[in-house]
Amino acid sequence: MPPPSSTQQKVLVAQFVNITAASERQATKEMKPKTQQQRSISLNDSLIPIEPGVDAKRDDKDKMELESTMTYLEKHLGVNLENAELFIALEIVKAPNLGEITRRGFVEGWLSQGAGFTIEGHAAHVQKLALTLSDDDDLFRSVYRHTFVAGRESDQKALGLENAVVYWTMLFSPPGFAWKSENHDWLDLWKSFLDEKWTRSVNKDMWNMTLEFALKSTADESLSFWTEDGAWPSVIDDFVEWCHAKGIGKSEKMEVEHDE
């Protein structure tokens, strides 16, 4: 792909500015008296708060903030905010968090996609990626890993467990990668295990290795790829032991020995 021209960059910058300006104009029309009340938007029962007294609709022109970001994603791109489409779009523009898109991320992200310079073209591109997300391991891995970046609170190095479970549910469900095998719904097992046994936050290593375990367990539900001296984080070791205790994932050899 040839390097982007200054004209192409200017077109995307203008689009970015127009989106934020349109949000401001609409906000002016729709503003209601109760500006001091805390407001929030729902994301599969996970709430993104807007602090009292903060007018989130007045965006800095170097970034879209919460109101503009959600309007852009849902109204302009037609993204379903309740499934993995949300994270596809956020990965494209390298959003630093769920409620913010920077001008640089927007311009450089769309230029890198080669998806043209119209909102309609960008919306179609997101839908095209959504159709291949479950089968394209490289795409899914990129989207999955950026979710950790965008999903954290700005001052935190880890994801809160409640939010991480919401994101796993979105990513491991259509149009994302179905974490299931012939006999087991691994996503449900994973969530049950966490609910019973895990109370801590989710760091980057746990987040990334959960994906690797998901890919392997989908292909090999006996979990024969797992060994006690492997490089898995302790939470994965505990999950495998939890599964074994329930008779899930034992190798044929182990089952024969148990029968004897």
TrEMBL record:
GO molecular function, one term: cullin family protein binding
GO biological process: protein neddylation
Pfam families registered for this protein in UniProt: Cullin_binding
GO cellular component: ubiquitin ligase complex
Domain DCUN1 span(s) in chain numbering: 45-244
General function of this protein: Neddylation of cullins play an essential role in the regulation of SCF-type complexes activity.
Protein name: Defective in cullin neddylation protein
Organism: Moelleriella libera RCEF 2490
High-level lineage: Eukaryota, Fungi, Dikarya, Ascomycota, Pezizomycotina
